[in-house]
Design goal:
Blueprint: E1 5-6, E2 31-38, E3 42-50, H1 61-65, E4 68-70, E5 73-77, E6 83-86, H2 88-101, H3 109-122, E7 134-143, E8 155-165, E9 176-180, H4 198-202, H5 205-213, E10 218-220, E11 237-242, E12 245-248, H6 259-271, E13 275-277, H7 282-291, E14 294-301, E15 305-314, E16 317-320, H8 328-341, E17 352-355
Parallel strand pairs: 1-3, 9-10, 9-15, 12-13
Antiparallel strand pairs: 2-3, 2-8, 4-7, 5-6, 5-7, 6-17, 7-8, 11-12, 11-14, 14-15, 15-16
This protein binds 2-OXO-4-methylpentanoic acid.
The site of 2-OXO-4-methylpentanoic acid has 5 residues, from loops.
Length: about 350
C-alpha cells in the first residue's frame, strides 16, 4: 500500500454551529481524499488535500457517457469520543461490484479503507453530534479520459468527500408519502440497476419531479418488464410487514443491494421475526392495504437510515399505512441500527469499525 500524502488546509472553513439543523449534502469539510488511475500504472499518488474544485477537460468521458460509480456511508461520534464507521467493508465490496459492471478498475481494499479512515480522522471535528446527524461519506470514481468515442476510459479519479448531514427527508423520522410509479421504470434485469451509478439516479428524476408536485417524497419503482413487481425507492430499499411477516423484494439484478437493507434483514432474523426476500407484486400490496393486513412499511438506506412510510399511492388509490405512525418493528430496527452506529448498542461482529 502506497503512503497517503497529506496536505492540510491553511484556511480551515467555519464549521456549522451545534444548533444548525443540517440539511442533507450541502456543506463539505476541509479535506478530501484523491487518487488517480492510469492503465498500465494502476492507482497512484493517493493524497489527502484541501477540499477543492476539479479542473477537467470538457471532453472527459464521465460528462458524456456517465462512466462513474459512487458509494455512501456515514461516520458517527460515540459519547466516549470514538469515531465509528458502519460496515465500511460492505461499501468497498459493493463499490467494486459496481466498478466491474461499469468497466472501472477495481479499487484495492487497503486503498479504499485507508483513504476513508485517514480523511475521516483528519476531519473528525466536523462530525456533528446532535441526534439524527452524522458525517456522510461519499466515495466516488469518475472516468477522466479526454475522448468522445464510446469505450471504457483509460484514466480515472477516485475521491472521497465528507458532508455533515441531518435527516435525508425534511420530515425526519416522521412517515413519508411514496408514489408508486406506473409510467417510467428505473432499471431492468441485465441493465445497471444493481450498480451504484449516476445513470440510475438520472433515470429517476422525471418521476421524482412528478411525485414531488403531487406532494410525495419519493418514488417506488416497479419492475421494468411486467410493471408489476415492487423494486426499490431509489434512495432506499423497501420493506413491508404483512400479517406479522417482514417482506422485502429479493435482489434480482435491478435492485440496489443496500447495506442497511442487509442489516435490517439480519436483525429481524436474529430477533426471530419472520422475514422473506421474495417477489412481491403491487396487487399484493394493494390487497394487504385494503384488508388491513399491511401493518408497517419502511425504507432503508444509508442516507435515510430507516424511514417509515405512512402513505403509498398507486394510480388513483391511496393506501394509508399504520395510521401514519411509525410501527414497532420499524422503530426497533431504527433504534438498533442507530444505536450500533453511535456505539451505544453492541451489533454483530464487524459492523462497527473504529477510526483511529
Ligand atoms: C445513500 O443512501 O447513501 C445513497 O447513496 C442514496 C443517495 C441517493 C442519497
Amino acid at each position: 500500500m502506497q503512503t497517503i500524502r497529506i496536505e492540510k488546509t491553511l484556511c480551515p472553513k467555519e464549521k456549522p454551529g451545534k444548533d444548525n439543523p443540517l440539511t442533507f449534502g450541502t456543506i463539505f469539510t476541509d479535506h478530501m481524499f484523491e487518487v488517480d488511475y492510469e492503465e498500465g500504472k494502476g492507482w497512484y499518488d493517493p493524497r489527502i488535500v484541501p477540499y477543492h474544485s476539479l479542473a477537467l477537460d470538457p471532453s472527459a468521458m464521465v460528462f458524456h457517457y456517465g462512466q462513474t460509480m459512487f458509494e455512501g456511508l456515514k461516520a458517527y461520534k460515540a459519547e466516549d469520543g470514538r469515531v465509528l464507521l458502519f460496515r465500511p467493508d460492505k461499501n468497498w465490496e459493493r463499490a467494486n461490484r459496481s466498478n466491474a459492471r461499469l468497466c472501472i478498475p477495481e479499487i484495492p481494499k487497503d486503498l479504499f479503507m485507508e483513504g476513508l479512515k485517514q480523511v475521516v480522522e483528519i476531519d473528525k471535528d466536523w462530525i456533528p453530534t446532535k441526534s439524527g446527524t452524522s458525517l456522510y461519506i461519499r466515495p466516488f470514481v469518475i472516468a477522466t479520459d479526454p475522448f468522445l468515442g464510446v469505450r471504457p476510459s483509460h484514466t480515472y479519479k477516485f475521491m472521497i468527500i465528507l458532508s455533515p448531514v441531518g435527516a435525508y427527508y425534511e420530515s425526519g423520522l416522521n412517515p413519508v408519502k411514496i408514489w408508486i410509479e406506473d409510467e417510467y421504470v428505473r432499471a431492468v434485469k441485465g441493465g445497471i440497476g444493481e450498480a451504484k451509478t449516476g445513470g440510475n439516479y438520472a433515470a429517476s428524476l422525471a418521476s421524482q419531479v412528478k411525485a414531488h408536485e403531487e406532494g410525495y417524497a419519493q418514488v417506488l419503482w416497479l419492475d421494468g418488464i411486467h410493471r408489476k413487481y415492487i423494486e426499490e425507492v431509489g434512495a432506499m430499499n423497501i420493506f413491508f410487514k404483512i400479517n406479522g411477516v417482514v417482506i422485502t423484494p429479493q435482489l434480482n439484478g435491478s435492485i440496489l443491494p443496500g447495506v442497511t437493507r442487509d442489516s435490517a434483514i439480519a436483525l429481524c432474523k436474529e430477533w426471530g421475526i419472520p422475514v422473506e426476500e421474495r417477489r412481491i407484486s403491487v396487487d399484493e400490496i394493494l390487497e394487504a392495504a385494503r384488508t388491513g393486513a399491511m401493518e408497517e412499511c419502511f425504507g432503508t438506506g444509508t442516507a435515510a437510515v430507516v424511514s417509515p412510510v405512512g402513505e403509498l399511492r398507486y394510480e388513483n388509490e391511496i393506501m394509508s399505512i399504520g395510521n401514519n405512525q411509525i410501527g414497532a418493528v420499524t422503530q426497533k430496527i431504527y433504534d438498533t441500527i442507530t444505536g450500533i452506529q453511535l456505539g451505544k448498542v453492541e451489533g454483530p461482529k464487524g459492523w462497527s469499525v473504529e477510526v483511529k
